[in-house]
Amino acid sequence: MKVRKGRAVCLLALIQVAGFGLSPVLQAGPVVKVAIPDDYPPFYYRDDNGDFRGVSFEIVEHLLRELGYDVEATQLPSMRTLLAELDAGREDLTVNLTATEERRKVALFTTTPHIVETQDLIVRADSPIRYDGDLEKLKDYRFGAIFGWTYGPAFDNAEDLERVSVNSSSDQLRGLLAGQFDIALNNRQFFQHQARDMGVSRAFRVLAPPVFELPVTIAISRRYPQAEALRDGLNSALDDFLTQPAYRDILERYGFGAVSAAAEAPP
User: Fold this and answer.
1) Partners of 52 in beta bridges
2) Which structural domains are found in the chain, ordered by start?
3) Exposed, middle or buried: residue 80 (CB in 10 Å: 0-12, 13-18, 19+)?
4) Are 211 and 202 in contact (CB under 8 A)?
């Protein structure tokens, strides 16, 4: 994958064989501009070579190529920026997003999730906070939430909970360490991965049960010229891909279980 000015470009080139009188045998497909926010392993991230990896990115990249598209991937600094770029039509698609009423104003969403992601409550290791599934019992604490993220209806609709908004997961981890808030909401696998990278893996603990299990879908900008056709094509390609060994291989590589082809994202 070629990287240029912060944009990782995956473009199929024309194949020509000089001296044999052959015409090009492979035409480049239409380009879809794929945006992802800051690294969120194991869902999407850049590896040490600058290439995009992760369970969501690789599944969606496969689907787009199956549909004949080329992928031009860009990493943006935050979810706030990503949603603004989709709204403006400067980016066409993002690989990992759950539909909400506000997001539906910006994008169309696939109906079948390609992965299921949990959102968990995370506290400092020395925190006395306990959780039994009733968020109302935690109303005296401050929650660090990332702008633009959804954490499920139980949290999103809990008006009595005090929220401190941050722009990224790294800001969230640092804010929890610094005591800017008492509880962070994030995916446990990612948060623990990030904490290990920062050398503070023992500084946190995850509370059970999860706040929400999110069916992760693909979001297509409403400003994309053929947004409905692209969404429908991705739906069809995903339903087929969920039954294939290549899909299971991607899941196993990143430590996930399979998603049922019959499962659907919430309306």
Assistant:
1) 46
2) 2-115+215-253 (3.40.190.10), 118-213 (3.40.190.10)
3) middle
4) no
Residues 6+ apart with CB under 8 A from 69: 29, 30, 31, 32
Separation between Cα atoms, residue 108 and residue 103, nearest integer Å: 8
Give residue-wise pLDDT tens across range 5-15. 344 444 333 33
Instruction: Give residues with Cβ within 8 angstroms of 57, minimum separation 6.
Output: 34, 36, 43, 44, 73, 95, 96
Residue 192's identity, in one-letter code, is: Q
Q: Which of 235, 236, 242, 239 lies closest to 257, judged by CA?
A: 242
Q: What is the DSSP string of the chain?
A: -EEETTEEEE-PPPP--TTTTPPP------EEEEEE-S-BTTTBEE-TTS-EESHHHHHHHHHHHHTT-EEEEEE-S-HHHHHHHHHHTSS-EEEEE---TTGGGTEEE-SS-SEEEEEEEEEETT-----SS-GGGGTTSEEEEETT----HHHHT-TTSEEEEESSHHHHHHHHHHTS-SEEEE-HHHHHHHHHHTT-GGGEEEEEEEEEEEEEEEEEETTSTTHHHHHHHHHHHHHHHTTSHHHHHHHHHTT-PPPPTT-----
pLDDT band at 89 (very low <50, low <70, confident <90, very high): very high
Entry pTM: 0.69
Give 249's contacts (C-beta < 8 A, 6+ positions apart).
Answer: none
